[in-house]
Amino acid sequence: MRKLAFLAPLGAVLAVAAGPALADPASITVTIGPDLQEKADELGERDVREQADRLAEVVRRALAREGRLDGARIDLVLTDLKPNRPTFEQMAQQPGLDRHRSVSIGGAAIEGSVTTADGAVLPVRYDWYSASIADVRGHTTWQDADRAYARLAGNLVRGRYVSR
User: Fold this and answer.
1) How many domains, the chain?
2) What is the DSSP secondary-structure string of 90-147?
3) Which of 5, 55, 140, 149 gives a 20 to 30 Å CA spacing to 155?
4) CA pair distance 61, 146, nearest whole angstrom
5) pTM to 2 decimals?
6) Residue 49 CB-density burial (10 A; 0-12 exposed, 13-18 middle, 19+ buried)
7) How far is CA 38 from CA 30, 32, 82, 91, in A?
8) Which domain does 136 fall in, by range?
9) What is the pLDDT of residues 55-92, one digit of tens each?
10) Coil, helix or strand at residue 142
């Protein structure tokens, strides 16, 4: 009887501490578009795949932080990538490129859809590139692509799915 007397209050405390059931987080899938797949030989297969994974992670974190689109399925297609600095594959193919001094405008283009928990299918379209070489502020290979991912994630949080 003493064991039951101890377990009953413990169960009540655990039930209250658990709070309301959390909604399922959004399911995010990122694929690589056919045009970018052709360009992957030039950029490097590994770099392109890592960027697709990076896009999924940036969107996942933004939606989880804001608690948006719970229960939704988000299918994104990375359609274009432009690095700010040469990738390892580009440097291997073009030995004259300099990892530190070769700089270009970069960015990314993303398309896809959001299927909300209630079944509505909404198109997603976003791209962002540096306007000029003077706008390139980052020191990493994919600085502007990361900026594009963050801006897309912010738009998804705000309910803006199509931007051009």
Assistant:
1) 1
2) HHHH-TT--TTT-----EEEEEEEEE-TTS-EEEEEEEEE-SSGGG----STTHHHHH
3) 140
4) 13
5) 0.81
6) middle
7) 17, 10, 14, 18
8) 22-158
9) 999 999 999 998 888 889 999 999 999 999 898 898 89
10) coil
